[in-house]
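Q: Hi! First time doing this. I have a protein sequence and I read that you can turn it into a structure. Is that right? Here it is:
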Amino acid sequence: MIAIVNYGSGNLYSVKKAFEIFNNNVIISNKPWDINRADKIVLPGVGHFKDVMESIKRLGLLEALIEAGKNKPILGICLGMQILLEESEEGNTQGLSILKGKVIRFPKAVKV
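A: Yes, that's right. Below is the predicted 3D structure, encoded as structure tokens:
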């Protein structure tokens, strides 16, 4: 089963439809037990790093995601990829620390 994590950010249903092309056992969930029983995890995301991490903690998903990162394939999309890292300058916030590294802002001279 593929679990798409619903922490309140991202285009979940478009992501789900894309994965259903290859696998008919895809769920969208914000429950730790679904993360625990899934074979693969998808972290979509749009928004602010700090807000997403606060949402993950509030929903009780933090431990399930950290544990999943030890032994399951995880795909991070956009902000979902960023939260896999150790920390971000955006809100000076700790990430999931599944991957080593820090999300840093582009230099001010770069138009984003």
